[in-house]
Write a structure and sequence with these properties.
There is one protein chain. The chain is elongated. With 695 residues, the chain is an all-alpha fold. The chain contains 25 helices and no strands. The C terminus is likely disordered. Helices cover 71% and strands 0% of the residues.
């Protein structure tokens, strides 16, 4: 059975895909085999829709998939040509497989669409690189391949899936919720957090995820995080007890509401951008008012509850300002005004080629999960091609197909897939053998069976899981090959041997090359992210507490931004794997904590209240002590992630240890929130207490 029961919509999508692939494969296979008498062209016309439409999970709507297929067609023709020419020698084919395998698997750095079409491109080289060496059939191979891909493209347009909402539209909807929440009346906090959860990339179809390296995709991804933070801040503000009348906060919230409305319209239509600098100016006026009130006589200063609320309102206004900048970059492709601070929008002024170069070179390292997967895939496919050639397996193509389709990012997940696949192939081989013995050489019977068998296999396999998919695909292979050349029940035996051989090779690669998958990498990446961002806390405290005219160290956030990108990439890969032993670990909370440090380091020195003439030295000293303790706590969590188990930090005094002054209230709100996040992270790293065994 499948691991997860598909929903009604998912079942409809699977059925439409099965119909598209079966119709496209039949439309090319039958006329070319029985009408034109071209078996080689017919085989490629049958295989191409299966490779691109079924074995390649190209995401997106029908038009998006057609666009990917047409752009990939020249590469498919080139790879089929290369495979045909390198089939002259086993080791030439192995060398080509090693190079092609790595480059196509590494293309995942380009996002979900290149990653989705890569298996199909792999298969076009694999099918062509096996004997017989027949360069004279190259024209038929390329023509059949093109016919199959074009037939599938036509079916994609005629029987398309309903389009999904784009990420830009999702941002616009979430900003509509934020606008309503910031206006009088508001939105219930749980609805705001639900709206933010819908922006998580795990909740977005792969085709709509902003995963590219260009400015637009980077801005949309950063804008999504800013909108999520804004929604969470609005929810927290709604949950706080009401305070005395605060017209300044109400006015700034109105500005935030108007900005969210304008940004939502701007993202949808590309027209009517928000008034440049309006929110920034409102924030400066708000800050000037806070400073004026905080500098007055002690009896006229606002209550502490009002100061806390103002601090929260200012922080969410800063999030809205980030939304404004990212929306500007996403719509125009570049900022129409300087993106401040530049280090948080480092990509805004870089050209697209330079951004792609950074993406590629940043992943050319053994620490990159994408590099690890590409190297493992290439080595596995090359080893499979060498074994198939050395043993002269009659249908060695299936060895490589097993390596490509059954390989997983961890050894445990590969073993589970292999175990199920071998069981399914055994059942399918028995059924196919019985079919071949029963029908014998009656080609017309196989011709009648092929189309319905394909439809059943392509529909039921994804619905029921790996064993059914492998078993039914064995029947497809048997009914197709029985029409091209005379076969016996030994075809099923050959497929079984080849699949087991490929499974063993894939399993060995999984055991020898990074068997833990992204688990170790996500631990390391998150630990380095926390270690890089933690020093921002005391630097930010010093910058805020420094008196006018004193030396103020400017928090350097760019290293933290870089580490955040690496950690998000590792987490995205880890999320695709089967759950491991540390399912309780709250990785998402670590990303939020890092964002919290980065954003606080940006806005607190700009807008946090400066020391007043009556600032108490104990309050400033306590803020610095708390900052150091938070760094120690963060380092301790990072050490636990990389295998250590240090003693927990005993904070002598938290941010609430003394009455907050106009100086310390902004730091109190920021550091208290960070301390709570670290506590939740630490709790998620601690296994639950074991229950005593009954006597």
């Amino acid at each position: 059975m499948a691991d997860v029961t598909p929903t009604g919509q998912e079942r409809a999508t699977i059925l439409r895909r099965a119909v598209r692939v079966a119709v496209a494969a039949s439309a090319g296979f039958y006329p070319l085999l029985y009408g034109a008498g071209l078996p080689v062209m017919a085989l490629y016309a049958l295989f191409a829709p299966i490779a691109v439409g079924l074995l390649s999970p190209i995401p997106g709507s029908g038009r998006q998939r057609v666009s990917v297929m047409l752009r990939a067609l020249p590469w498919a023709l080139a790879l089929a040509t290369l495979g045909t020419l390198l089939a002259v020698d086993t080791w030439a084919a192995v060398g080509g497989m090693l190079t092609v395998g790595f480059l196509l698997a590494f293309a995942a750095v380009g996002g979900p669409r290149p990653a989705g079409v890569a298996p199909g491109l792999h298969l076009f080289y694999i099918l062509a690189c096996f004997p017989p060496y027949a360069p004279d059939t190259l024209g038929q191979r390329l023509a059949g391949l093109a016919i199959g891909v074009l037939a599938l493209a036509a079916c994609e347009l005629l029987l398309a899936d309903p389009p999904a909402a784009s990420y830009r539209e999702r941002l616009a909807r979430a900003l509509g919720e934020a606008a309503r929440a910031a206006a009088p009346g508001g939105v219930p906090p749980h609805e705001l957090r639900e709206a933010g959860a819908r922006l998580r990339l795990a909740s977005v179809p792969p085709a709509e995820r902003p995963a590219g390296a260009g400015r637009t995709d980077r801005a949309l991804e950063q804008g999504g995080r800013a909108v999520r933070r804004l929604l969470d801040q609005l929810a927290t503000l709604a949950e706080t007890p009401p305070t005395a009348a605060d017209p300044a906060s109400a006015d700034l919230l109105d500005r935030v509401s108007a900005l969210c409305t304008d940004c939502a319209r701007f993202l949808r239509t590309g027209t009517g951008p928000p008034e440049a600098g309006a929110l920034e100016e409102a924030m400066r006026r708000f800050q000037a008012g806070r400073v004026r009130l905080a500098s007055g006589p002690p009896g006229e200063r606002p209550p502490v509850a009002v100061l806390r609320r103002q601090s929260r309102v200012l922080a969410l206004a800063e999030s809205a300002r980030m939304v404004e900048i990212t929306a500007d970059i996403a719509v125009h492709g570049h900022p129409t005004e300087p993106a401040v601070p530049r280090r948080l929008f480092w990509y805004a002024e870089l050209s697209t080629p330079r951004l792609w170069a950074r993406r590629v070179t940043g992943n050319v390292t053994f620490r990159s999960v994408l590099f690890q997967n590409a190297l493992r895939t290439a080595l596995g496919l090359a080893a499979a091609r060498a074994v198939a050639g050395a043993l002269d397996l009659s249908h060695g193509f299936w060895v490589l197909l097993a390596v490509l389709t059954l390989g997983r990012t961890t050894a445990g997940a590969t073993w589970r897939a292999v175990r199920l696949a071998v069981a399914g192939n055994a059942a399918g081989a028995l059924a196919a053998g019985a079919l071949l013995i029963g029908l014998g050489p009656h080609t017309d019977a196989y011709a009648v069976l092929l189309a319905p068998v394909m439809l059943a296999a392509f529909a039921l396999g994804p619905l029921l899981g790996i064993p059914y998919a492998q078993g039914l695909f064995t029947l497809v292979v048997a009914t197709a090959f029985a029409q091209i050349e005379p076969v016996t029940w030994r075809l099923s035996e050959a497929r079984m041997v080849d699949v087991v051989t490929g499974s063993v090779i894939g399993l060995l690669c999984g055991l020898l090359a990074w068997p833990a998958g992204a688990r170790r990498e996500v631990h390391r990446a998150m630990a380095e992210l926390l270690r890089t961002c933690a020093p921002l806390v005391p630097v930010t405290v010093d910058a805020l507490l420094a008196p006018p005219g004193g030396s103020r160290a400017s928090p350097q956030t760019l290293p933290g931004v870089h580490r955040l990108r690496l950690a998000e990439a590792a987490y995205a890969q880890y999320r695709t794997e089967a759950p491991g032993e540390d399912t309780r670990t709250d990785w998402h909370a670590m990303l939020i904590a890092a964002n919290h440090m980065l954003l606080g380091a940006h806005w607190l020195p700009r807008f946090g209240l400066r020391p007043g003439p009556d600032t108490s030295a104990p309050a400033a000293a306590q803020a610095r002590t708390t900052a150091r303790e938070l760094v120690t706590e963060t380092d301790r969590i990072a050490a636990r992630l990389t295998g250590g188990d240090p003693e927990p930090v005993r904070r002598r005094a938290g941010p609430d240890g003394c009455p907050p002054t106009p100086l310390s209230v902004d730091l109190e709100v920021w550091m208290t929130s960070l301390a709570e996040q670290l506590t939740r992270i630490d709790a998620s790293l601690t296994p639950p207490p074991s229950r005593p065994s009954p006597r």
